[in-house]
Amino acid sequence: MIETIDPGAIGTAGPGGAGNGWPGESPSTPAGVADVLARLRPAADAHRRGAGAGPVNGLLAGLAGAVGRLPGPDAEFGCTLVVELARRYLEAVRGHGRGTAVPRVWQVVLDAWTGDVPAGRIALAGAHALAGLDLPPAVVSTCTLLGRVPGPAERGDLETVVGLLSGLACDSARNDPDDATADGVRGLESLLTRGESWRQAEHLWSVRGRPTEAERDRDALDWRATLVARGVLGAAAG
Known about the structure:
This protein has nine helices and two strands, in the order ββααααααααα. It has a two-stranded antiparallel sheet. Helices cover 68% and strands 2% of the residues. By secondary structure, it is mainly alpha-helical.
């Protein structure tokens, strides 16, 4: 596992200007993830473009804190996986702030946060995006970084992370007064218990030496995640 984060790697200027708390480099530990998201929180809560969606930032901060407390063999894989997951999300946030291309699903979720969509729906759509788009390639990069091959132990660690993510997202949605989140909660719980993230991770691992095929498969993941996110967010997602 990557051991430390350079204290100087987190600056004070972001895509939206000074004060966003934008990191100069990606965080490399769960504590670093939580620190970056804490710095982004004021701008995200103010719906400032380039600071992320507040409810999704909260999910990842909670996930980073939870995996940091995992015991035994779960700790190394789980911590590295969450760092990889956050890195992908923060890259999308950075691109969204700069107006450059980002995955379709994150374009939809981040645009919705700048509109008038209830926070509970944003949390659910963000959790779907994390699990449906970002988790499978994050498993591949985590295994590569740690010199591991996806197997039963890695699947168990992934399921632990998915369970934590599902719990955090569903709790966030249930605390939202918007009644329309109820079906989304049930849908998220159903989706994440089917093991789809693991199946997609195994497939991406099998094609990792074929970049064109891997890119096509990641694009398909993005399309599917986008359809789900639009359904969760409703008409406001456009």
